[in-house]
Amino acid sequence: MKTILVTGATSGFGKAIATTFASNGWNCIITGRRKERLQELTETLTRTYDVKVLALCFDVQNREDVIEQLQALPEEWQQIDVLVNNAGLALGRDSFDNASLDDWDIMIDTNVKGLLYVSKAIVPYMIERKAGHIINIGSIAGKEVYPNGNVYCATKHAVDAISKAQRIDLLPHRIKVTAIHPGAADTEFSVVRFKGNQEQADNVYTGYQQLVAQDIAAITYYCATLPPHVCINDLVVTPTAQANSLTLHKE
Ligand code: NDP
Ligand code: 8X3
Q: Which residue in 49, 117, 125, 152 is the catalytic one?
């Protein structure tokens, strides 16, 4: 039986990824800050599928907590076949001069440093087995910069660069590294970005068929289940109505 660790499994892509892998018989380590949601998902997955689930509650920004909890994994959970670094967020959509330093700190600490802490804690288990697959969730914001995207785009460009670096440095250890870069997808992403303003969030997703979390889960599963000698390195996926960050065709 294989094991996946998904960060940010309490919502959106992460929840759909955990559910898809569980439905295919994978044991799941799920993480996030919202404990009740982790408990709910644990109950749903174990009740619905014949799999084991380990829920770990931590903020990926908290270096000590991340390292402590992941280095102390029970032995039966140390064989992690796939790590999906998914936890992340955008905060605000303000011009460089108007944006908040606090928002910038949180995005950098979560999207960049959090991904590094989790990877650093899990990679030794993979090196020990000479096998493993890291799948980083980037964004089309990591391929192009758009107006008022400044630091969110910078963090996702960092995810792009870190994925390339991991692929090079972890090559001798036979660890695959895949970066998946989605375009607009209807999750809690925009409600978080606009700090609870539902109207502003809904406006992002009107007038076209956006991606849904299940699309990203299916792609992640496909990437994770290719033969051992095949690795998708970099994958950009947008709604058909979206050509790039700046070009969206709304009806
Ligand atoms: P959601 O807001 O639905 O999910 C985000 C997940 O990340 C939640 O489970 C949340 O869990 C977790 N998370 C956020 N901050 C932290 C933290 N500090 N510590 C631990 N977990 C955290 O958004 P999405 O599913 O859309 O986002 C998932 C990833 O996809 C993000 O990296 C995002 O940047 C990226 N992305 C999203 C796109 C979109 O259009 N939706 C497009 C391209 C990329 P909790 O709050 O419980 O901690
Ligand atoms: C999320 C997609 O275009 O809002 O990363 O940055 S976008």
A: 152
* Token pair for 187: 């999750």
What total number of domains does the chain contain?
A: 1
Is residue 216, in this structure, part of any structural domain at all? yes
Note the pTM of the prediction, 2 decimals. 0.98
Residue 218 lies in a domain: yes
Ligand 2 is surrounded, with C-beta below 6 A, by 139-141, 149, 183-184, 245
Tens of pLDDT along 62-112? 999 999 999 999 999 999 999 999 999 999 999 999 999 999 999 999 999
CA of 186 to the centre of ligand 1 (A): 12
Residue 212 tokens, joined: 């849904």
What interface predicted TM-score (ipTM) does this complex get?
0.99
Residue 152 catalytic?
Answer: yes
Ligand whose nearest atom lies closest to the CA of 186: 1
Amino acid identity of 87? A
Per the domain annotation, does 249 fall within a domain?
no
Cβ–Cβ < 8 Å for 145, 96: no
Show the tokens assigned to 113. 């440093």
Asked whether residue 67 is assigned to any structural domain, the reply reads yes
